[in-house]
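Deliverable D5.2: sample structural annotation.
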Amino acid sequence: MFPPDYFNYAADDLLKLYNKLDETITRDIMRHLVKTGKVTATADWQIQRLQESGLLLDDIIHAVAQLTDASDQHVRVLFEDARVQSVEFDSEIYRAAGLSPPPLRQSLGAMQILQAGVQKTAFHLRNLSGTTAVATQQAYINAVTLAEIQVESGAFDYVSAIRNAVHTAAEAGTEVLYPTGHRDKLDVDVRRVTLTGVSQTAAQISERYADDMGCDLVETTAHPGARPEHAVWQGKVFSHSGKHEDYPDLIKSTGYGTGEGLCGWNCRHSFFPFFEGLSFSAYPRENLQEYEDQTVQYNGETIKCCDPTQIQRAAERQIRATKREFAGYDTGIKAADSEPLRNALNEQFQAAAVKLQRQKLHLDDFIDQTGLLRQDEREQMLGFGRSQAQKAI
């Protein structure tokens, strides 16, 4: 079992690696866009565009390859830490019930589950990286094509067209492209894949221990701000087998095993063993009601507890996105070989700096008013260090 707060920080170290990939790809796009050269005949432009696109894809694949080995190691460390916390909590309950649960490394079944979870999550992360390379190459082609159309139509001069293309690419950032055509930001997908993988693996290990210890009943964790469809079952006791007369079926009641249910996508809930006649509910009914009724005040309005956290996450994503833009313009300015283009990109650079400061002030005010915890690591972009921060100021 994990306390719900565990999911607030569990994937942060791994996410930093993928933020680095995001920032590296953005800088590569900027360098290629500003080095494309003057627009000539359409045929020559198309050949050059495809050549540049191929170079860009190679650069991205190289960056992904460098990251993959490191991220696999981070996934393993994350899962090892998770299993220690989860198993130890459950083991205390079993020992209190007079049982003797074996250490994780002495349970062959549990170790096999752990290994499978590590491999599955690492595979998904590598797959995300690969689809990112393809999506980014297409984003570059689209940006260059837009510049071509703008120049040939006479609507924009060369400098303005390239500036617009750089702005479009920097603002779009690094995306993951799914076979269905759905797109998501890389950092959003990394966090979802990692936390879901950790949560599901820990849940499967808990199931294995429950089977070995002969424990059919489990209690789900609870936290303020749960999404409405999860709030109805959090903090309650269920029968894992579904055969107990006095307790509802865990799978049918919570959707356990599905993406939308318990231990699914972005779910911060887990469960732990419960022994009838021995255990006391960790979440008395009045506590659950307090969780459901909890609110904060912002700009004179009352907001239910689940909403301000979502507002904070959105503000953090916006700050990361602007830092990515800022880094892209910084690279474009350094790579530009003409003064007019350099000046045009510098205007975008200055605008991004102003936007970044406004976003940070907005988040500061939001945190002050709501009393939420500031999580600076969620605002960080690797490569955006003290030097870049000073430029923004």
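Annotation notes: Residues 22 and 30 are 13 Å apart (CA to CA). The longest strand covers residues 217-220.
The annotation will be released with the project's public dataset once the embargo ends.
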